[in-house]
Structure formats: C-alpha cells, structure tokens
Specification:
Layout lengths: L2 E3 L5 H13 L5 E5 L6 H5 L3 E4 L8 H4 L5 E4 L9 H14 L3 E6 L12 H12 L4 E7 L7 H10 L1 E4 L5 E2 L4 H13 L6 E5 L5 E2 H12 L4 E4 L2 H10 L7 H12 L9 H4 L8 H8 L1
Parallel strand pairs: 1-2, 1-4, 2-3, 4-5, 5-6, 6-9, 7-11
Antiparallel strand pairs: 8-10
Helix pairs in contact: 1-7, 4-5, 6-8, 9-10
Bound molecules: NADP nicotinamide-adenine-dinucleotide phosphate.
C-alpha cells in the first residue's frame, strides 16, 4: 500500500515521514514538498520525493500517481489556504487516492474564536463532501510551541496570559505524527474524527509551576484581557500581525475549546502521550 504525505519537509511532515519509513517498505512512501532538495536524505533512504505545491494544482494529480492513502497537512497560509487544500483533495480524487487524512483543530465551530477555525472547518467540509474515504485529526495546540512561554516566564518570574482559568491539552508534534502514521498504516479509521491530545489539560497556573521549577523560584501568573495581552505581546517584540492569532488561541482556551483529553495518542499512535514536563527536560 503506497502512502503519501504532503508538506513533508515541514516539522510535522518530517516526523510522519520518519515514522512511515520505520514501519513501511520505503518504496511505499511518497513524500510531497515544494522543495524536494530539503528531503534528499529521505530519497537516500528509499522514499520517493516529488515536488508538489498546492498553489500549482496542475501538477498535483501526477504527483499522486499510485498513491492509496494521503496525509494532507494543513499549510501555514492561515486565511488563504482553503483553495490549496481544495486543489489537493480534488487532485487526490482524480489520481485515484482512496483515503485522505487531514490535520485540523479541536472544535472548529463558529463559537470557537481561534482564527484558524474557518480554514479548518471549510477543509473538513470539503473532505467530507469529496466522496473519498477520510479521517480528520483534530490536533490540539503543539506542546512544543509552549516552551518559549515557559522559558520567558522562568526568566522574568511572570507569566502573562489571556487564558483565564482555562486549560489546553497540549500535544507534541511527535505524538501527532505517531497518530497520523497509525491512521495511514492502520485499519478502521475511515469516517472517523479524532481529537489528538496530550495526557492532561494544562492551565496557565500549571505552565507557571513548570516555569517555577525550571527557574528555582516562584513565577506569578498575570491574567490579562485580550486587548492588554495583545499589546503586551507586541511590546515584547512579537510582530504585530501575529498577535491576533495568539490572542485568539488564548481566548479559545479560556472558553474551554481545547481542554478535552483523549487516549488517541495511545490507542492509535501506540505511544504514551508526552507531558510538557518531559519536553522541558529534553530542552534543558
Ligand atoms: N496544532 C498546532 O499548535 C499548530 C501550530 C502551528 C501550525 N499548525 C498547523 O499544522 C501544520 C503542520 O505544522 P508544522 O509545525 O509542521 O508547520 P511548519 O513546519 O510551519 O510547516 C508548514 C507546512 O505547510 C506546508 N505548505 C506551505 N505552503 C504549501 C503549499 N503551497 N503547498 C503544499 N504545502 C504547503 C509545508 O510544506 P513544504 O514546505 O514541505 O512544501 C509544511 O508542511 C501547519 O502548517 C499548520 O497548518 C498547527
């Protein structure tokens, strides 16, 4: 069975590629990326690496020749990526791909303020209406991306947040990759939507406790409203265009949209979900 991964040179894509190469015959692994040179090592390991760009849909069908299952990794073009995702799904259908797996987010519903919701909701709908077999992986926020917040709080003694008393079941990219590989190589996942989460819902107080352990001194949680949090992020050096996204993630956590914990990493990914504390130990 031949399996393809789009966006294979991205951080998640590489982790999925490694897992597939560890379990499948490399001749069954097709890695699609805008820049095949970045995956030269994977070519040496026996994978087929092909150039594919969702913004150049004319070439996509040929890239998917012989592929039975495809992981469609959502692109980083937030706000403008639905057309690319549509092109990838249409190309998959034309090329005879049977099953498409898509990386989404938990609760992509109208009452979730996360700015990435509209793209994911639209792509999920396209996939469900495509006539293809599908699986949706609703990956929680990456635990890996919380490390700078924890390190900053450890350094300053204060953790600024707009998450209120909310919590998120942060999940590592590696655990997300294990689940994606489990679905791509396993059976019984067609028509399923999975929340892919870490082992626990983690609040700002929990993050501050981790920072305090790291720093060896107390770390205070400073709870701000969305406006003050955005202003603080920009004053701290974050590019202004990025602030609304981070603020919206915090608001989403505050409303409980990311708190659900599942056992999907264990049951489908075949591994114990990684707690944030373990990432910090690796980092330090
Ligand atoms: N759960 C979370 O906390 C979280 C956080 C950030 C992002 N995400 C989402 O998860 C995805 C994977 O995360 P990541 O950490 O691996 O992100 P990343 O390292 O920034 O990778 C970006 C991905 O987008 C792909 N891409 C961009 N433009 C493309 C195009 N025109 N056609 C095809 N592919 C395109 C890239 O593929 P190539 O460069 O190989 O072509 C790459 O796989 C992100 O793209 C984003 O949608 C989730």
């Amino acid at each position: 069975m031949t399996v393809a991964v789009t966006g294979a040179s991205g951080q998640l894509g590489r982790l999925v590629a490694d897992q597939l190469l560890a379990t499948l015959d490399p001749a069954e692994v097709v890695l699609l990326t805008r820049d095949p040179a970045k995956l030269a090592v994977h070519t040496e390991r026996g994978a087929t690496v092909r150039a594919a760009d969702f913004d150049r849909p004319e070439a996509l069908v040929d890239c998917l020749a012989g592929v039975e299952r495809m992981l469609l990794i959502s692109t980083d073009a937030v706000g403008t990526r639905v057309e690319g995702h549509r092109a990838a799904i249409q190309a998959a259908a034309k090329a005879g791909v049977r099953h498409v797996v898509y990386t989404s987010i938990p609760e992509p519903s109208a009452d979730n303020p996360s700015v990435v919701v509209p793209d994911h909701a639209a792509t999920e709908e396209l996939l469900r209406d495509s006539g293809l077999a599908w699986t949706i992986l609703r990956n929680n926020l990456y635990a890996d991306m919380q490390l700078p917040t924890i390190e900053q709080a450890a350094a300053s003694g204060r953790l600024f947040t707009n998450t209120g008393d909310g919590a998120a079941a942060y999940v590592t990219r590696a655990d997300c990759a294990a689940v994606a590989a489990g679905v791509l190589t396993g059976e019984g996942h067609e028509g399923q939507t999975y929340d892919v989460t870490g082992p626990a819902a983690v609040s700002a107080s929990d993050l501050a406790a981790l920072a305090a352990t790291q720093a060896g001194r107390p770390v205070e949680v400073v709870r701000l409203d969305d406006e003050a949090y955005a202003a603080g992020l920009v004053a701290g050096g974050l590019p202004e265009a990025w602030a609304p996204m981070l603020v919206s993630f915090g608001a989403s956590i505050r409303l409980g949209k990311l708190a659900r914990v599942t056992d999907v990493v264990e049951t489908i990914g075949g591994r114990t979900p990684t707690p944030l504390s373990a990432l910090l130990r690796q980092d330090g």
